[in-house]
Amino acid sequence: MAEAANRTPQLRGARLRRAVLDATLARIEAVGIDDVRIADIAAAAGVHETSIYRRWKTLPRLLLDALLARMESQIPIPDTGSVRTDMLEFMTVLVGFARTPSGAALIRSTDTDAEAEAVRREFWAVRLAASQEIVRRGIERGEIAEAVDPRLTMLTLGGLVHIYTNQLDGNIPDDLAETSVDMLMAGLAPR
Questions:
Q1: Nearest 10 degrees: CA dihedral of 59, 62, 63, 65?
Q2: Quick one: which of 21, 46, 51, 124 has the most CB atoms within 10 Å?
Q3: What is the pLDDT along the chain (191 residues), one digit of tens a residue?
Q4: d(Cα 122, Cα 39) in Å, to the nearest integer?
Q5: For the chain, what is the radius of gyration of the CA atoms?
């Protein structure tokens, strides 16, 4: 009986996923995305490594799941009824995310592992596809010219954050969101 009382309850399902994702994000924050290890995540989450491998198969798949979960909660795709306001909210939150350790780590990651690189590309493709909805809604409402390319528009905004984070030491101007959105809106409006 004493042995059963000393055992930690086994995590399963949603509780396991949440504990592992939280531990993964904490490790990214603590050591950077390139130095995260399954053993450290398992220890922090209070689970066995095999539980992680059984569910996620590889570290890159786990990182993708954790980062997508974080992005969905921290950088939602706004729908305010105004394309300018949606883009401004999106950029403001994206800039804030890029200023966090996990955001900067994701943007700056230089892991050369082929699977990790494929997961990173998939991550950005998913986020880019979701963000394009802002532009599509703007086109449907007549706020943006029909010929505007949603992908190119969102790549332009996101690309600015990536350049500041990767090439300009993370010194993102406080007014980048508003300045860049206003500049883009001038060129996107119907003629």
A1: 160
A2: 21
A3: 444 444 445 666 788 899 999 999 899 888 877 788 999 999 999 999 999 999 999 888 898 788 777 776 667 789 999 999 999 999 999 899 888 877 776 777 666 667 767 777 877 888 889 899 999 999 999 999 999 999 999 999 999 999 999 889 888 999 999 999 999 999 888 87
A4: 24
A5: 20
Residue type, 68: L
Computed from CA positions of residues 157, 163, 165, 169, in that sequence, does the dihedral angle turn out positive or negative? negative
Predicted TM-score (pTM) of the model is 0.72
* Dihedral sign of CA atoms 167, 157, 148, 179 in order: negative
**Residues 132, 130, 165: CA angle, nearest 5 degrees:** 85
Domains of the chain: 1-59 (1.10.10.60), 75-191 (1.10.357.10)
Q: How far apart are CA 51 and CA 45, in angstroms?
A: 11
Measure CA of the first residue to CA of the last residue in the chain; give whole Å.
78
Q: What is the DSSP string of 89-143?
A: HHHHHHHHHHTSHHHHHHHH-----HHHHHHHHHHHHHHHHHHHHHHHHHHHTTS
